[in-house]
Design brief:
By secondary structure, the chain is α+β, with helices and mostly antiparallel strands. It is built from three helices and seven strands, in the order ββααββββαβ. The protein has one domain. The chain starts with a strand and ends with a strand.
């Protein structure tokens, strides 16, 4: 994706957007280690099969928000959050993201 680079303001809006967050094996290991649990326990407690059945995704809260979003805007796994989260909105985005996201354009 070319164009401006955006700096996350940690508004948490992307953590509430409908959809899913894919996780791969290395992300699962990193998050599990960060949480002090085994990868198998992490998978059982915090993931589910993607609708396409092509891998795992993080579970969501009943309201659709990320299970790792706490309080107003705190990502409890910020230090090891999945690449999909780290890359938004600079390496991927979706129609309408600017209407919700508070990221600022960097020079």
């Amino acid at each position: 994706m070319s164009g401006p680079h955006y700096l996350c303001q940690r508004c948490g809006n992307c953590c509430r957007w409908p959809g899913f967050v894919r996780v791969n094996a290395s992300e699962i290991r990193a998050i599990a280690e960060f949480l002090g649990i085994s990868p198998d326990e992490f998978i059982a407690r915090h993931t589910e099969l993607r609708p396409s059945r092509s891998g795992l995704m993080l579970k969501s809260n009943p309201d659709g928000s990320c299970i790792f979003l706490e309080g107003v805007n705190t990502c409890t796994i910020q230090q090891v959050k999945p690449r999909q989260c780290r890359d938004f909105p600079n390496k991927w985005s979706f129609h309408g993201w600017r209407e919700k996201c508070e990221a600022v354009e960097a020079n």
